[in-house]
Amino acid sequence: MQTTLSPPAPVENASAALPALGTVRLTVNGTAKTLQIAPWTTLLDALREYLNLTGTKKGCDHGQCGACTVLINGKRINSCLTLAVMHDDHEITSIEGLANADGSLHPLQTAFVDHDAFQCGYCTPGQICSAVGLMNEGQAKSEADVRELMSGNICRCGAYPHIVDAVTEVMGIEKQA
Ligand code: FES
Ligand code: FES
Question: Which keywords label this protein (predicted)?
């Protein structure tokens, strides 16, 4: 038996079919922000496009590179894979919020500079935020652990050896011979 499919009925008022903008309250780097955004806005786009915090980078936009890593209540997350509306009243920290109030750098930022742990720098904000999350997790006990637990952060310049040097130094982990 043949089934005949009919085209969908035309939407008479397309704008009426769109969900209304929603109010989202985010605390970003210690400052409360209220945004009126579409419910499908990712946290990454909310940071970059609505709050002008462009330190967080968009690499793949599909959860595969780690360039968009930020911290939510101290835990690292790929901000391209989560919607801003899911983080009402959460504490979000991006790379712009890691330095101390007096302007001095976070120890990981200093270590990345000291170890020359970047080339183009595109992955660096995500690498550093991810390393802060790694330290908060308290799981990494060895250089191999650092490599494994940072493996979600891709560096197309291949700066991995220096990134590992920087992270292990700050964590007080001895380098393997
Ligand atoms: S931009 Fe989010 S993981 Fe690549
Ligand atoms: S420093 Fe260029 S992608 Fe990592």
Answer: Iron, Metal-binding, Oxidoreductase
Same domain (yes/no): 125, 148? yes
Q: What range does the domain containing 115 cover?
A: 107-171
The residues with which 34 forms a beta bridge, in sequence order, are: 25
pLDDT tens, position by position, 123-172: 999 999 999 999 999 999 999 999 999 999 999 999 999 999 999 999 99
Give the number of the atom of ligand 2 that is nearest the alpha carbon of residue 118. 1
Co-location of 141 and 80 in the same domain: no
Q: Report d(CA 53, CA 70) in Å as an integer.
A: 11
Q: Are 162 and 137 in contact (CB under 8 A)?
A: no
Ligand 1 geometric centre to CA of 81 (Å): 8
Ligand 1 mean position to 122 CA, how many Å?
Answer: 12
**Token reading at 56:** 């967080």
Q: Does residue 90 share a domain with residue 53?
A: yes
Look at residue 16 and tell me if it is in a domain: no
Task: Count up the domains in the chain and report the number.
Answer: 2
Please choose from 60, 95, 119, 153 the residue to mutate so as to test ligand 2's pocket, defined by most ligand atoms within 8 A of CB: 119
Average pLDDT over the chain, rounded to an integer: 93
